[in-house]
Amino acid sequence: MLVLCGAASFLSAALLFLVQPMFARTVLPRLGGAPAVWNTAMVCYQATLLLGYGYAHVTTRRLGPRRQATLHVVLLALGALALPISVPPGWAPPVAANPIPWLAALFTVSVGLPFFVVSATSPVLQSWLAGSGHPAARDPYRLYAVSNLGSVLALLAYPLIVERRLGLADQSRAWAGGYVLLVLLMAAAAAALRRSSPRAGGRPAATAPAPGVTEPAKIDADTPGPPAAAGGPAARPDAAPERLAAGRRFRWLLLALVPSSLTLSVTTFLSTDIAAIPLLWVVPLSLYLATFAVVFARRPLVPHRLAVEALPVVVSSLVLVLVARAHQPLGLVVPIHLVAFFVVALVCHGELARDRPEPGHLTAFYCWLSAGGALGGAFTALVAPLVFRSVTEYPLVLVLATLLPSRPAAAWEGPRQRTLDLALPLGLGALAALLTRGLESSPEPSPGATGLLLGGCLLVVLGFSRRPLRFALGLAVLLVVGALRPGPEGRVLLTERSFFGISRVTVDPTGRYRMLLHGTTLHGMQALDPERRGEPLAYFSRSGPLGELLRAIGGTARTRSVAVVGLGTGSLACYGRPGERWTFYEIDPVVARIAGDPGYFTFLRDCPPELRLVLGDARLTLARSPDHGHGLIVLDAYSSDAPPMHLLTLEAVRLYLRKLAPGGVLAFNAS
Question: Measuring CA to CA, which residue among 363, 376, 349 is closest to residue 290?
Fold first, then answer.
């Protein structure tokens, strides 16, 4: 029984985390490769996972493991009717509207049913094991560690092996084969369950706490071990399940919410503000899943107390990086973000593992975990982009994480100490703000002096770590001080956040240029001097490679019809001449609105050629244009500082060549 349940748990988790990147890989070319595609897809996965866990909870409670086993095997068999997984023809994303509802609907239609049934398999198998007569029924949570191991291995295997060796059609067929194998394993496990010795009522019984589990009243990072080991009474095998307090369930919700939110926000932050690294999302999600495997193992690889003690150190280090706005060197900055995220997830999931209930409440426990995960994902992917103009959710949830580990009651008590919990962080923040402003307004500001000041303040805050509220508020006020500091890009005129990223319009520190930035990457600039407003600058200057190309072919037949993929500020239009037709393809409506607003940039208004703007992903919209219709195609589409990979594939280049007129020119901006 244990071997069958373990194999099915491993395979079901692997299938889940193979289909997730497979679906994202399918839809990315339709949405420009934006990081938000993966974040939105994750919310769809988490919402479906919540439905699957809810189904497992309700059916196990109402039917008992044996009758539920029959139902689940039947549903798995019905799910095979939706295979192989594919995107239905005719599904195109909206051009100007938010694509999130479209993406959710596409997920439901193409992946929903098989994903739902497979997502319920892990808690279902654990309830089956708990309801059997097997000796391992005392701690069915070990299967959760096995399933998360399968998740991690599948997630890493996709970019390293699967995607390299199989096309999407072959991936779908291979996944269908794995699904059929899962149905067979689940049928065998259900048969083994029916042969096992029945329990009273056919439901998982309450048992003594599993090794490493503490009762909610005794949770303490400094007091490891189960209550039975300390002389507390162990529950009888035939005892009724304990009652779950509302506060305990709410704490489960928060402990699941924080790592889920951070998984998406650290991905967004690194992809937008640090480096547009292909497949970067694989790393945070792998770390997230690995922490479950670590803490729910029968013998956790990392002591929980060690993780709790490391939490203030790694979070303080990350806050220093955020306050200093450090983006280089990547080999140092990226690991700091990922290590801090890993430790936070390890602590939160470790708290959940230590507070897991007896098996009678197993499916309810997973429902609360799944609800927290879905809420964390929805907050980051759906709510935060509407509420915050930058990735504010990242430091916000990071600060919240420091309040969640269990601490002795003395860490929260004492009237005088509670007053200091508020006064000390506020006083430190005011002092840091005054000193920082003084240093940066001096005739010769020194970034090193400011960095030393902020580092010293964080050392003081680290001294608050034994008082959770004081420590969290100390981090929060220093993050606010850092956010109020002027950035190297100058005075910010506008910040807008869309599905495709964060766009800002700034005036540089000299006051001579207006710039458009996506994350931290410059996407165009214009001189404020009226005599130079029609002059292309930065990458597009007349002395640059593109300027030399257009000087050589300008005014010829090749420039009578020009296609430019990526709008930026529209400065390329000033290379055009009267009578020429220039078509810009832009996926982000926010960028199009900024470039077309003369209050920010005037290239589209002032430059001479006839201009046309087409919204939508260029690979789809350009495909609808006449073949051999352009004498010049310029590829200048970027997400942060890297071009979307689907615009650089062999299939994409064939499309561009088909749209070129005989003797036409295809130019890539590879900077």
Answer: 349
Flag whether the pTM goes above 0.85: no
Helix 112-119 with 100-110: angle, nearest 10 deg: 70
Query: Which residues does 671 contact at the CB level (< 8 Å), separation at least 6?
Result: 539
Beta-bridge partners for 199: none
Query: For 276, how many CA atoms within 13 A lie in the half-sphere containing its CB?
Result: 19
Q: Between the CA of residue 3 and those of 69, 134, 442, what are the distances in Å?
A: 17, 11, 69
**What's the CA gap between 233 and 476, in Å, rounded?**
42
SS3 label, residue 228: helix
Tokens read off for 618: 């260029």
Please tell me whether residues 280 and 419 are part of one structural domain: no
Q: Is residue 497 part of a domain?
A: no
Domain identity same for 553 and 624: yes
Distant-in-sequence, close-in-space partners of 330: CB < 8 Å, separation ≥ 6: 274, 275
**Which two structure tokens, joined as six digits, stand for 621?**
């919209």
Range of the domain at 418: 409-484
CA angle at residue 504 from 500 to 507, to 5 degrees?
Answer: 160
CB of 394 within 8 A of CB of 262? yes
End-to-end Cα separation, the chain, in angstroms: 58
Please list, residue by residue across 627-650, b when 16 or more beta carbons sit within 10 angstroms of its beta carbon and e when fewer do: eebbbbbbbbbbbbbebbebbeee
Give the dihedral of Cα atoms 148, 150, 156, 161; nearest 10 deg: -170
Supply the CATH number for residue 555's domain: 3.40.50.150
Report pLDDT digits (tens) over 396-405. 999 999 999 9
The tokens of 326 are what?
């450090």
Q: Are residues 479 and 511 in the same domain?
A: no
- Over range 196-210, report the average pLDDT: 48
200 has pLDDT over 60: no
Q: Are 515 and 522 in contact (CB under 8 A)?
A: yes
| Residues ≥6 apart with Cβ < 8 Å to 439 | 445, 446, 449, 450, 453
Closest CA to 607 of 533, 662, 554: 533
In a domain, 448, yes or no: yes
Q: How far is CA 191 from CA 128, 131, 185, in A?
A: 11, 13, 10
Identify the residue whose tokens are 């509207």.
Answer: 97
